Amino acid sequence: MVGYGFMGAAHSHAWRTAHRFFDLPLTPVLRTLSGRTESALVAAAERYGFEQTTTRWQDLVEDPEIDVIDICTPGDTHFEIAMAALAAGKHVLCEKPLANSVEESAKMAAAATEASRRGIRSICGFSYRRTPALAYARQLVAEGAVGEIRQVRAQYLQDWLSDADAPMTWRLDKDKAGSGALGDIGAHIIDLAQWISGQDIATVSGILETVVPTRPAAGDMQGLGGKGDLSGERQQVTVDDVALFTARFDSGVLGSFEATRMAQGRKNAMRVEINGSTGSIAFDFERMNELEIYDATADAGRQGFTRVLTTEPEHPYAAAWWPTGHGLGYEHTFTHEIADLVRAIGEGTDPSPSFEEALQVQRVLAAVEASSADGSRWLGVDPSAPETTAQTSQTSQTSQTTPSQERTR
Amino acid sequence: MVGYGFMGAAHSHAWRTAHRFFDLPLTPVLRTLSGRTESALVAAAERYGFEQTTTRWQDLVEDPEIDVIDICTPGDTHFEIAMAALAAGKHVLCEKPLANSVEESAKMAAAATEASRRGIRSICGFSYRRTPALAYARQLVAEGAVGEIRQVRAQYLQDWLSDADAPMTWRLDKDKAGSGALGDIGAHIIDLAQWISGQDIATVSGILETVVPTRPAAGDMQGLGGKGDLSGERQQVTVDDVALFTARFDSGVLGSFEATRMAQGRKNAMRVEINGSTGSIAFDFERMNELEIYDATADAGRQGFTRVLTTEPEHPYAAAWWPTGHGLGYEHTFTHEIADLVRAIGEGTDPSPSFEEALQVQRVLAAVEASSADGSRWLGVDPSAPETTAQTSQTSQTSQTTPSQERTR
Amino acid sequence: MVGYGFMGAAHSHAWRTAHRFFDLPLTPVLRTLSGRTESALVAAAERYGFEQTTTRWQDLVEDPEIDVIDICTPGDTHFEIAMAALAAGKHVLCEKPLANSVEESAKMAAAATEASRRGIRSICGFSYRRTPALAYARQLVAEGAVGEIRQVRAQYLQDWLSDADAPMTWRLDKDKAGSGALGDIGAHIIDLAQWISGQDIATVSGILETVVPTRPAAGDMQGLGGKGDLSGERQQVTVDDVALFTARFDSGVLGSFEATRMAQGRKNAMRVEINGSTGSIAFDFERMNELEIYDATADAGRQGFTRVLTTEPEHPYAAAWWPTGHGLGYEHTFTHEIADLVRAIGEGTDPSPSFEEALQVQRVLAAVEASSADGSRWLGVDPSAPETTAQTSQTSQTSQTTPSQERTR
Amino acid sequence: MVGYGFMGAAHSHAWRTAHRFFDLPLTPVLRTLSGRTESALVAAAERYGFEQTTTRWQDLVEDPEIDVIDICTPGDTHFEIAMAALAAGKHVLCEKPLANSVEESAKMAAAATEASRRGIRSICGFSYRRTPALAYARQLVAEGAVGEIRQVRAQYLQDWLSDADAPMTWRLDKDKAGSGALGDIGAHIIDLAQWISGQDIATVSGILETVVPTRPAAGDMQGLGGKGDLSGERQQVTVDDVALFTARFDSGVLGSFEATRMAQGRKNAMRVEINGSTGSIAFDFERMNELEIYDATADAGRQGFTRVLTTEPEHPYAAAWWPTGHGLGYEHTFTHEIADLVRAIGEGTDPSPSFEEALQVQRVLAAVEASSADGSRWLGVDPSAPETTAQTSQTSQTSQTTPSQERTR
């Protein structure tokens, strides 16, 4: 594993735990932890349960004992490590974002596809997909439980930048972080909206905003929520803290998206709602063990959103855990991810989300940025596609799209 | 009163009821009900408690006994009736939308301003403002309870058009209705967002959509929710059923708006959320007796959204009604509107929302429509203002706006 | 109408409003308001819309123009007025409690039964039954939606006595009020639990408690929530402020009941939950437009409590009001009560709750009081019934009861 | 560790995980797993990560390498194992119930007290105490956040016995299980109510019920939720499936308790609510990451239940885990328990809940059973205490108790 921060803690817990609750064809061993700062690295390795450490990530790639490389570093290093790992025949779990640019992502996706032919597996860490409620939502939508999709609504609301005196961090520096709310949390709802709906986003119109453009330098105490050093000069924030965009999926369906760190009081409100012709599903990660399901075909008088506790044996992943009504937590999403990855490796199948799927998310992010820079003009996500016309007037647009949809019902 | 449909029922209830619960300087008398179809009109007058009827609305304008004219007809008739009434020195309550065009609305606003100098009062029926929770939200925001506003989020979600076989109605015909979801329900959240935040919308970028472009003709049974005549030809829907737009308020704050009739399972989810630097408020009309308040200055560990039942004596309008915890319903918003209007007439003050405020809403609606027709380009709301630049890149925009906001805190 | 307090306001609103929204065979006229204090009476009559007033309630009984007498006075006067009214051939609406003793209640029930033979109708004001969600709950249970009932759970939680310095009032004086939380709010959940389940309570074991036994005298300002006169001596509270009891219904089902004014933060949390073999229903008056329904026969994985907004045309009373999702308020329960009463009078049928049903509630109240005074011993509700054996060990009890229930399924 | 069932899985996960997230003075090693069935035992040991196995639990007691013995077996074996372990100088974690009788529990408590003098630690597994929201609730109550406690309300609602054809299991056989809903889930809310309120229960009046007295034998498939073998004879259930009781705490405060497996739709609704003179707290384990707090001293108009996500650094245990808003799950309660136990061992302090506290719970359970068998008569919990008088009439009772409480405020 490369990287030992917050993601390192979550991933190593998952590697230690997955085979304790799931029947896996292989049993993971935590071999080597890699990182830059020797002392912190050694402490982390002991804490996380790794056998050894190295400050050279290349050592992992070169170690014949190692089968899987788990990349938990910041996005700007993903490309180099992942490409080397795939070339060396290692299975790769790469945290999102796949890379900091579409170009790098595309190369990684191509490399992963090629590696797959050699039996090498790769997966990008959109771990929220493994929330039982969301995996179940996808299943329901695929089974037709909401009918024809009418609208998609996705929000990722946080609040830790609401305070104008919250300190500057590397996450707010475009050179280091690549992107702000859009790339960090917006990427998750893009992935989920596409995955649950079974549709790709084709065009977008959006705006990025930096509501608080300067912040005090971080003082000694530097956690989220505290104040920065108010005595010194304020530093420039160079990424967005709010991202709003409208998307058209390739079916013609509209989706509205919001990623923000200015939603005072919303701690981790990652919400997805799909409205269809015969039903809806709604989810909020602040209540991650619940899925709200609306069935418009139920008896008149008895229709409403049903709050399902997704802790029943029928729900994805739930049977491996506790009795009904005993909820799961955030880190279970990672444990499920590792379980699925190990199973895929053992069974010789490709796990998802593939690098190709992650590339599609990357393209959407890039299109939103470009649209924002261009006055919220509608832009196509796939540069190789013919010029999109999503921005044409709604009547002509929909009179082309929807009737054909209806014909196929 | 002109018009005896759904709004006529709500208004006449309010006229009969307001002085029974509020101390008013004047006591309303329901004199004449006007409408087009004689038999239905007579039945409605008896049901609603009017003394007499007429099929000529001009009779009301000419009747010296009548002090107030309440216009509950479709939007395309508002202009003519309201202008005549104001000219004749009648106080006017005009249902929203003020008119079907900005031009007519502007003339009405000018006429109302002029009439006010003669002691004639006018008010536009954005009755949701009189929901105690929303009136209290405005008060809290004005008192600084959320600090500096960071974001506005407003949705009006309904679902009665989710079924592609719900029948065609005049509301879906642009010639008659003027607008679809945007004008009918979007207008409410535009008004509320501006009123609660105390800020006007300056520019917008939006898209209107007709998700289901053809519908069966209405059969004999024609209520919401039923099926149309599936045997005949389908008719063209000429208004939007989904409207999505992003707005920039004159302070620079961004707001996201959605009005839809495709949100399966959402019956009347009119939601407003204001996020600020030190707090938030959130509301959903499906739970109209509740306001959610977040206070970021509360003790660490005890912060969260507080669900306030707005039935305490401290809440607007609530003291006139029942003991705490005994909720109010939809029609109370109208009763409060009438109470405020009668009080304003008696006291010789101008009630709100004024026609001028309603005109501002109308301008926003028109700008959204224009933006949608122009590829979601950012457009200014006030045509007399210098060319807006909201669509410029976010960094320059916000580095101009926000520091000055911060200076004034 | 006799009495012009809070209940007088609610009832007169209902009398004025019912025929405006419901098709009734008769149109109510508010003839005479009776009360003790001349000046307040006259003001109330004007406010409520009565034609005339009298300080002698006997005048109403003697007035041949009057068909219905609505009794909104404190419980100790109900017996005399209702008996006189029935004797004089007036239809009677009597607020709950029917009377302050079982003896009086029994005589009133007998008189009502006898009067019914002469075409005279009587009804006791358990108005919460007319909450659409609760009327719908009864319908669902009767249709078998929850299967065989397993348990009943009912709470009425308020908080206005939590503060030990809330002032003494007549409601806390046993001589005047008859009972405390038990009789005032507990009576409602007893009535609802019996009505919705379709079963009578047979035996009870309970305890009454006065958590704060002395209170300051009321000062000048005397509303709920304020402080009493803290300078003077404290007065003795002689009724309960908390009542807890367990009940066994005549089918053998157990129910748990709580009525309290010490539940800090609960404003009007009147809650009823029925658990059955195949489903459950749950209700909280703080969200009076919602009913939660659980269906254990739904597809595995999709089971959960469904939040139904009871504003659909399929829900009792709802079709008379507004479009779906537009909620009703507290006073609608009274309007529905009057509508049903007027319809019953017009159609010559007996409305419910009858005085007989109210007598059953009274008997339960008396049994709870007696049980509390006797160390929470199990006591039968019906004194004419053979000695009850509810307190025998559970195994023998249930082995007698439940198998026979199961045989009849 | 002795026992490898559901609890064994939860405990071993906690032993493996605690030192990965908490700074502990000692690092646990999973030495030996003991159980009865060899093959299942070996599989479990591998799954859970134990070094070796034995079918003789005595081997653990005799092994000098072992410092801690974790008892996860059914209640009837606790006494023998724990006494032997303590005698051998092993620290003991004993699952609840401490034992199946008050007598055994008392001996174990005495042994634990004696062992403590030798530096041997013991703890009983009421793990729900380590839910962050509940640990925080206790802290708030202790700090006076709710003022003087007025009432306690506790429920543990499950539904897996609602179906009369759910199969017979050993849990429903009194000889094996000792108790039904009361002992299994009621014990948790008794412990929590006492722990959070800081008060012991002094007297109780209750009733136990077996709603479904016979059940089909378990067929091949035997999980919760399925049907038993409907072709054969039905077997007798000899424990309660519903337990209702009222308790008086030693301060005089009343509490109402319910433990049931008949609450259709409630999966794991362990609820605790404390109402006080100046505030309330409310919790439901189905939303275990939330605590509802009501502050009656907040500004008028802004009072309401605040939904706190207990994932902030200020909340007990939360800082060891993820960023704010990222919830924890059921098994975290065990991980926290192990962390606290290991820390106590390392620091030489006694962890809680002690065997003495567990004995108090056991006494309450026994008193409820005795009360149920004696017609719900009020019975004292502590047999050594003078005859209790809780069942005397409320006026005299409370006029004795409450004034003195008030004097001390």
TrEMBL record, chains A, B, C, D:
Origin: domain of life: Bacteria
Species of provenance: Brachybacterium tyrofermentans
Family matches, as InterPro entries: Gfo/Idh/MocA-like_OxRdtase_N, Gfo/Idh/MocA_oxidrdct_glycsds, GFO_IDH_MocA-like_dom, NAD(P)-bd_dom_sf
Keyword hit for Transferase: no
Region entry Disordered, spans: 372-409
PANTHER family: BCDNA.GH03377
Domain GFO/IDH/MocA-like oxidoreductase: 136-281
Keyword presence, Iron-sulfur: no
Composition skew (Low complexity), residue ranges: 384-409
Stretches assigned to the Gfo/Idh/MocA-like oxidoreductase N-terminal domain: 1-117
Pfam families xref list: GFO_IDH_MocA, GFO_IDH_MocA_C3
Name listed for the protein in its UniProt record: Gfo/Idh/MocA family protein
